[in-house]
Amino acid sequence: TQLLEQSPQFLSIQEGENLTVYCNSSSVFSSLQWYRQEPGEGPVLLVTVVTGGEVKKLKRLTFQFGDARKDSSLHITAAQPGDTGLYLCAGVNYGGSQGNLIFGKGTKLSVKP
Amino acid sequence: GAVVSQHPSWVICKSGTSVKIECRSLDFQATTMFWYRQFPKQSLMLMATSNEGSKATYEQGVEKDKFLINHASLTLSTLTVTSAHPEDSSFYICSAERGAGYEQYFGPGTRLTVT
After folding, report:
1. Which of A12, A14, A25, A86 to pair with A6, CA 20 to 30 A apart?
2. What are phi and psi of B44, to 5 degrees?
3. Cα separations (Å) of B24 from A7, A29, A39, B37, B74?
C-alpha cells in the first residue's frame, strides 16, 4: 500500500513568517500534486510536479519534487492570513488503465495577523 | 480553469432514506470521475472510480450496493447513498479527470447529515 506522510500536521504562525510543509513516501510516484482546501469546499489544485528535482514557483509558494520522486516540499515565504487552509499533497501513480490520487493527511495551516 | 459542480451542497436526511448527489463537469467532458469521502479533520479517501458507460470500480471496503454510482454521460456522475444511516454522515467530494491526463478537478463537496 502506498502511503504519503505529511508533516507537520498542524502549523500556526504569525503573518510574515516562512514555513515548509513536507510530504514523504517510501514509494515512487509518477507525479505529485499539491492542493489547498478551505473548510466546506473541495480541494483546489495548486501545482503538479512531474520531474525528479523539479522546482516550481507560484508567487510566494515554492514546490519541490525530490530527485527520487518519493518526496516533495512546499515552502511559503512571508505567509499571509489568506494562506490559511488545509494543504494536501497527492501522489499520482498510473497503474492499469487509469490513475488514482493517493492523498496525504494534510497540513492545517493557520496564519495569524 | 475546469469547473466541476456538485448538487446539493448540503443535505439533511432521515435515517433509512436515500440521497442522490450529482457531480457535473461544466466546461469539459470527463470520461472518468472519482468519488471521495472526507471525515472531519481527515484527508480524502477514494470511494470509487466512475467511468462513463460502464460500471464503477469500488475501493476495498466500500459497499457498492450502498453507494450506487451512475455515470450516464460525459458530464454527469451521480452517487446515491441508499438507506442512509448516521454513520454515513460525511463530506462527499467528486472530481473529474480532464482528458487522458492525470489532473483531477474537484467539486465543492456535499455535506451529508443523516439524523
Report:
1. A14
2. -80, 135
3. 33, 28, 21, 17, 9
The answer, yes or no, to whether residue B16 has pLDDT greater than 80, is yes
Distances (CA, A) of A107 to A8, A19, A84, B56, B100: 6, 11, 10, 31, 29
pLDDT band at A99 (very low <50, low <70, confident <90, very high): low
Residues of chain A found within 8 Å of residue B42, distances taken between Cβ atoms? 105-106
Name residue B106's amino acid: F
User: Is the Cβ–Cβ distance between B44 and B38 less than 8 Å?
Assistant: yes
The strand pair at B4-7 and B10-13 is best described as unpaired
**pLDDT digits over B61-75, tens only?**
999 999 999 988 899
Contact A83, A111 (CB under 8 A): yes
**Inter-chain residue contact B108 with A108, CB threshold 8 Å:** no
